[in-house]
Design brief:
InterPro entries: D-2-hydroxyacid_DH (IPR050857), D-isomer_DH_NAD-bd (IPR006140), NAD(P)-bd_dom_sf (IPR036291). Keywords: NAD, Oxidoreductase. This is Hydroxyacid dehydrogenase. Pfam families: 2-Hacid_dh_C. Belongs to the D-isomer specific 2-hydroxyacid dehydrogenase family. With 339 residues, the chain is an alpha/beta fold. It contains 14 helices and twelve strands. Helix 6 crosses helix 8. Helix content is 35%, strand content 13%. It has two domains: 138 residues, NAD(P)-binding Rossmann-like Domain (Rossmann fold, 3-Layer(aba) Sandwich), CATH 3.40.50; 183 residues, Rossmann fold. The two termini are 41 Å apart. The chain binds nicotinamide-adenine-dinucleotide. Nicotinamide-adenine-dinucleotide binds next to helix 6 and helix 8.
């Protein structure tokens, strides 16, 4: 009978506690051989090094130590790193690919709550709900008594999605729930047929901006996407448009956005900012036309269990020598296009 591969869980204590309840630990135990320690946040301790000598698969997450050449040398039998969170940046690099170690991530599962949060933000943007809630003038009358919000409606809106990424694709899909929505996508790397099959239209960013009543960002943080939405791009959005950012703060020129919102022309719902957290004196905090949440769109609380389940499913496939579904290959990594 084939023996189960030796596995070690490497992540911070809080990550371990959030990822593995009793049921999920039992499932892990059924798939692999666990030892002592079962979990560590320190791959350099003597105890961890003893385990690394046998380990064939690592389950990692937030707080996992980087897999440096020295740590990899201490794990001569390591064949797979299954990451229970989103990006593997800061965890793996060339030494991992050079060893032919397989890597997967749970970014697909992490895309679910971000897309859900974005749909909620789009619907609230249609009704201008966060901004009306913050408008002191409403203490003295109904919504009809205030001006400057444009049309308070979710019917027949045009939404511009920047980035046909994991999350961007899910957002396009969810927008099918809103009657009469036109969905435009801007992404220099997307396939127009794939975008059309998802129910949207691929257009250049320049063409998308003047039509987007809601602009939602889902591109990765890269050198080329820094301030992708700057003063010039913001000025091309229609009056009363809402900018939603659940991607990364650096994608937007925050000062230019604050100026447009303070001038009464645009609105913004931001789950991410640059820097994070936003300083108390940031101009983005000085207007009721901007709603800021503290980077909560991704998996939190019970949603973290979905990341674990996704990874345990992948582990089951790996132990059964079946194809992996969330593998990050050396080529994908080298393309530098991903989050
Ligand atoms: N708020 C949160 O809690 C949270 C959680 C997870 C991810 N994120 C962020 O959401 C964003 C999307 O994540 P993902 O996992 O869907 O990304 P991803 O890795 O799937 O994105 C890669 C894709 O982005 C597209 N892209 C690349 N460059 C682009 C450009 N210049 N313009 C438009 N599109 C471009 C390409 O289609 C590429 O394939 C990232 O910025 C990520 O950091 C935020």
């Amino acid at each position: 009978m084939e023996t189960k591969p030796h596995a070690l869980v490497a992540m911070s204590r809080s990550s371990f506690e959030a990822h593995f309840d009793r049921g999920r630990l039992d499932r892990l135990d059924s798939l692999v051989t666990l030892g002592d320690p079962l979990w560590t946040d320190d791959l350099d301790s003597r105890r961890a090094r003893r385990r690394l000598a046998d380990v064939e698969v690592l389950l990692t997450s937030w707080g996992a130590p980087e897999l440096t050449p020295a740590r990899l040398a201490a794990a001569p039998r390591l064949r797979a790193v299954l990451h229970c969170a989103g990006s593997v940046r800061g965890l793996v690099g060339d030494p991992v690919w050079q060893r032919g170690i397989r890597v997967t991530s749970a970014a697909d599962a992490n895309a679910v709550p971000v897309a859900e949060y974005t749909l909620a933000a789009i619907i609230f943007a249609g009704k201008k709900a966060p901004f009306l809630a913050a408008d002191e003038r409403l203490a003295y009358g109904g919504w009809g008594s205030v001006t400057g919000y444009g049309d308070l409606s979710n019917l027949g809106r045009t939404v511009g999605v920047v980035g046909f990424s994991r999350i961007g694709r899910r957002v396009v899909d969810l927008l099918g729930l809103l009657e009469g929505t036109t969905c435009l996508v801007a992404d220099p790397y997307a396939d127009p047929d794939e975008v059309a099959a998802a129910g949207a239209t691929l257009v250049p960013l320049d063409e998308l901006l003047p039509r987007a009543e809601v602009l939602t960002l889902h591109a990765p943080e890269l050198a080329e996407t820094r301030h992708l939405i700057g003063a010039a791009e913001l000025s091309r959005l229609p009056d009363h448009a809402t900018v939603i950012n659940t991607a990364r703060g650096s994608l937007i020129d925050g000062k230019a956005l604050a100026a447009e919102c303070a001038a009464g022309r645009l609105f913004a719902i931001l789950d991410v900012t640059d820097p994070e957290p936003l300083p108390a004196d940031s101009p983005l905090r000085r207007t009721d036309r901007v709603m800021v949440t503290p980077h909560i769109a991704g998996s939190l609380g019970s949603e973290i269990g979905r990341l674990t389940d996704h990874t345990l499913d992948e582990l089951a496939r790996w132990t059964a020598h079946q194809p992996l579904t969330a593998e990050i290959t050396a080529e994908h990594w080298a393309s530098g296009l991903s989050a």
